């Protein structure tokens, strides 16, 4: 049994952790938590994450007899980066920037992209008012513009070094296209630096292995719809 026990599923947040584990070269065991069947609400999973959300991990090499449970994808990424000594710069400025962009994903990218996907893709038959979808369309394109500006003169979110900031953010951009089918509505091709960055990220061998944990290895071969 590996020290890291992963509890997750293929989602923009859930897929980050196997990607990070593969990039960091850490051994782990996979436990699928099927949120479509409500498995996240089980008493067993609540002991790991009382908020009943994926992903979560348990580090059996830390904490008490049952190990150290960690919830929230950003916190997990930060914990794993510190544990492995990878994907988080030891330079204090670069480290600070990485953590800032990690929080940017947690406070802005995830909530806004997720709300857009909810109204655009999953709840069209539950809300016929145009305001919610337009509101989150505007906010999603605004955030894409911030990313595009950030990536104009550098390969990754933090200069030219791949980091947990990239892993936190890029799966959400993939979901806009592949799962929300919104590349045309959001005019994703008007954010060329984001798309270039995305291609670099998703074709990394360890990232492809991470996607494959939940059967998404073909994502690395996909192209954005025009």
Envelope shape: globular
Low-confidence runs of at least 5 consecutive residues:
none
Share of β-strand residues: 5-15%
**Number of H/I helices:** 8
Strand order of the largest sheet: 2-1-3-4
The end-to-end span amounts to: 45 Å
Q: What is the N-to-C order of secondary-structure elements (H for helix, E for strand)?
A: EHEHEEHHHHHH
Number of strands: 4
Q: Helicity range of the residues?
A: 40-55%
Structural class: alpha+beta
Mean pLDDT: 94
Radius of gyration: 17 Å
* Biggest sheet details: 4 strands, mixed
Explain what you see:
This protein has 226 residues and is α+β, with helices and mostly antiparallel strands. The chain is built from 8 helices and 4 strands. Strands 2-1-3-4 form a 4-stranded mixed sheet. Helix 1 links the parallel strand 1 and strand 2. The longest helix has 31 residues, at 92-122. The chain starts with a strand and ends in a 14-residue tail after the last helix. The mean pLDDT is 94.
């Amino acid at each position: 049994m590996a020290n890291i026990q992963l509890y997750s599923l293929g989602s923009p947040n859930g897929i980050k952790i196997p990607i990070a584990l593969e990039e960091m070269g850490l051994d782990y065991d996979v436990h699928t938590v099927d949120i479509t069947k409500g498995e996240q609400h089980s008493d067993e999973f609540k002991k790991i994450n009382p908020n009943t959300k994926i992903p979560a991990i348990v580090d059996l090499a830390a904490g008490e007899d049952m190990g150290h449970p960690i919830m929230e994808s950003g916190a997990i990424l930060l914990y794993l980066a510190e544990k492995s000594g990878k994907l988080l710069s030891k330079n204090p400025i670069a480290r600070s920037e990485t953590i800032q962009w990690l929080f940017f994903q947690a406070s802005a990218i995830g909530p806004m992209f997720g709300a857009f996907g909810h109204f655009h893709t999953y709840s069209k038959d539950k809300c016929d008012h145009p305001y919610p979808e337009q509101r989150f369309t505007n906010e999603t394109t605004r955030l894409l513009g911030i990313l595009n500006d950030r990536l104009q003169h550098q390969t990754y979110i933090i200069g030219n070094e791949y980091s947990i900031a990239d892993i936190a953010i890029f799966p959400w951009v993939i979901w806009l296209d592949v799962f929300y089918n919104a590349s045309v509505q959001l005019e994703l091709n008007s954010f060329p630096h984001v798309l270039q960055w995305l291609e670099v990220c998703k074709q990394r061998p360890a990232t492809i292995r991470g996607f494959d944990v939940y059967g998404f290895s073909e994502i690395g071969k996909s192209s954005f719809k025009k």
